[in-house]
Amino acid sequence: MFLVSRLRGSDKNRKLLEEETGDIGPLPVRDRSKSLCVEKLATLLRPGYDPATLAARDLNLHALQRRRASSAISSSNDLISRRGVFSRRHYGSVELLPQKEANGQDVHSRRFRVENGDSLGEKEEIFGSPSTPVLENPEYQTRWYFKYFLGKLHQNYVGADGEKKSFFLSVVLAEANNQCGPQYRAILWKKTGAQKISLPYTANKPMTVKQILSNFPNMEKLEKGPKEIFSPDIQKDLLLLEEQEGSVNFKFGVLYTKPGQHTDDEMLSNEFGSPEWDQFISLLGDKITLKGWDKYRGGLDVKGDMTGKSSVYTIYEGHEIMFHVSTLLPYSKDNRQQVERKRHIGNDIVNIIFFDGGPAQMSQFNPTSIKSQFTHVFAVVCYCSEDNSYRLVVYSEESVPLFGPSLPCPPVFRVAEEFREFLIVKLINGEKAAFNTPTFSQKRERTLDMLIKDLYSEHMGEMSRGVGTMLNRRAFSDVLADPPRGSRRKEEAGQVEFVRIGQALKLDTIMKGDAPTSLATTGLFKRAPWETHCFYPDFGYEVTCGDSWGDSRLVIATDSGVFVVEDGSSHRQIFDKTITIKQLNVVEAHGILLFRADKGRDSKIHVFRLSDFESDSNGTQSTDNVRTRMDLKEHRLERTRGCGMYAISRPGGSHLRMVVSLGKKLLLMQWRHSAAWTAWCPASDTDTIDGFQFIREIQVNEQPTLITLVDSSLAGSAGGSCDNTVCVGYRHQFDLINERTGEVSHLFSVQDGTKAHLVAAVDLYEDEEPELLLCYNNTCHFQKISETRPTTEFDFRWNFIPSSIVCAFPYILAFTNDSMEIRLIINGNLVQTMAMPKLALITSKNDIFFATTAPEFFPSRTERLHVDQRSERDTSLSPPSSPHLSPEARPFRLYRIPLHALSGMVAPCDRRCPTPSPEPPESLHEPGGLNPAREPHAPPVERSNSSKLSLLAEPSAGHGASRGLSRSCSSSPTPHIAN
């Protein structure tokens, strides 16, 4: 996905700027679609300039620096990393394309989404090459029944929901292994499709069928409980239901077009192609002889050459692909319409149209010229001999949901193998997306409805007649419970037969080629965007919470104390185990450490200076400096006594803001210095608890379960009139509270009758409009702040109930205590799941950091590790043992997923982009009379891939901070001021 920032600018003090800096010429009108790049202000400083004067002109200085943006690093790197700024329109704009008959008369029109890489004409906003193409909803991730159930002992139920609609439920208890602990996997089969979910398993406390069903939407209230099916033949029926999800293998049409040809009859009448055509066909796959072909044939004849003698075939990540190549299908001189060719190509969901003659010919293509109601996606390709490149434009019928990967800008590929991989992934994703159009989804729903009704009647009839293996009916409340002892032998015999039949079905499915069994591919070797890097291979304590400190340190709270972990080198204790920390934040912009310690009435927020925890010149810290409970007294915010949680504004704003939850009231507080003022006067910002000033108290109806500060891109300090808000989650709903007025407005309610477990509220921006991603249970809901009526158009569901959510565009990641699930935020499609025992998200302020005890999944670092300065070992040989744990216990490894890898960039960018905050009260104006709204902007922002950013001003550290990426931008970037 390409991210576009909509920024605001101003030149209202231009005259004063001209007087001081000389005539800078005409200032162009600010294009809100463009980002700014501001270099260091040091080159503009003159003797006699004071900070107040510069503060009053910072908007004008940004305008001046726009002229230098072309010499800076491309804005693309910055844009795709910004938190929450995206546009679904980057996947094409919908256009009405008229269809004409041969006589030139209009017949009817169809609407197509056109992807041509132009991105609304803002080419400089798009990165030059595509991010790693990934398959969406891959079968080896989504075909649960085949992968997790078939051939294993599991239970199947049949019943009717509250609307008397038939359904089937399959439940399996996954055994504990080296990857993760035991868990339930459940599939609910309904006419609308299969819904899947993973649920935690508690030893000696099996879940009931009711409890499992209650985790699915609209399944809490049933008139009658479902009945268990013991017949092993049910496995064959359920496998048939799963096959309705779509094909494992694919067939794509490939049509050759000469210059001047406009109709499908003309295109299909080409008996031979050009050398460029032959070169393109050989790039797609291998030319195979059809007669005697024993692999996937894509509907072609393999006995008597009835569909031609040869074709083109390939495999990509376990998917077999047969291309229906127009010049290889039977040609008839007497048949103008070439029915034999049209019969195959016209019935393919996705077609490739190859234009001979270069890019100029591509613009003449109109998808309505292909007379097929079945084909929904057209990939238009041409070869450009001048620069030895391929160009691509994609047309998708309007009803086809968005699918990736999005095209680069311009859509030019100069490496043939990279183009091949991008094209194949785009074609596969396009066909899967087309299955969700009304043309196919309605047909699939009718098929599923018929199958489920028939199966319901069949199995309910057998039960009423007592037919089948009905041994030892389990109670309704039991799932996978042990059978009574007296019938154990018969039960075990039935289980053995059940598993045997399932294994036979699995083998038969594999032999027929209807199941994904291999990830073998003819594509390029590539690293997954979410590939992890070992940050620290041997950490001996279970993580409670933590945050990143700069680019190379973590501050981690555990039950045994708080530690500072250096990247691959050492960890040292800074607080002892008498201090129980539940929340923790590192705010580099002001050089402070925030944390919430203890619980209940004793819980308070404490503030320390980061400089207090710097190691000495040898990289060590004396054990005498390990702080105890006695050291907290002078660092606690008394007003926060009894707080249940707190949230801070994402770094990048003009001021650090904090909201604290105390029962049924919220306290709003703000740091007395702005980030910009701290950057200018780092030696003066040395406050701890005195740095926070109380703004106001807001009463709420219930005690919140989650709170998120939502920054407005049109806040007062950005020249707008909007206010920042607080999103508050209660038991069954989300509300929005105006920070300035305290006014509460209802945002979204969880559907009645649904058990609500609120997970997160992440603020996003789509096309400059603020939006919240509200996560509850296993559902993610997009809610526009300006909309009063919620729409579920873009809602999606996880396969498990997450404990935390991280946005790292174009991906969104969900974490549980034993797995990670990765989806695309643009459409909610699954791209990867990973099992990791004892998984704990540490922070996502900058790069994503997490802990797990699964070192076998990831490569370890090659650096040498010093643990507490007492031992060293080469971690490249094998996972190290922990000096802190018993031999049978496994150490935790700390891993990092870099933002630039997720964003598809090679290296970090040097530019920053803070988000403004509203103008604070006059009482909070800075020392020296500075108005915070007119101060110089904040220092650079570090790499970030979550809902928050991090400013890299670390004046107390005594050294310059490295530069990285920002993920959010609602205002102009700001200069980095050297100390």
Automatic annotation (TrEMBL):
Signal peptide per UniProt: none
Gene Ontology process terms (BP): regulation of small GTPase mediated signal transduction
Biased composition (Basic and acidic residues): 861-875
Region (Disordered): 861-888, 910-979
SMART domains: CNH
Domain (Rap-GAP): residue spans on this chain: 238-455
Keywords: GTPase activation
Skewed-composition ranges (Low complexity): 876-886, 962-972
A GO molecular function held by the record: GTPase activator activity
Pfam families reported for this sequence: CNH, Rap_GAP
Lineage: superkingdom: Eukaryota
Domain CNH, residue spans: 540-849
Family to which the UniProt record says this protein belongs: Belongs to the GARNL3 family.
PANTHER family: GTPASE-ACTIVATING RAP_RAN-GAP DOMAIN-LIKE PROTEIN 3, RAP GTPASE-ACTIVATING PROTEIN
Protein name as annotated: GTPase-activating Rap/Ran-GAP domain-like protein 3
Lineage of the species this protein comes from: Eukaryota, Metazoa, Ecdysozoa, Arthropoda, Hexapoda
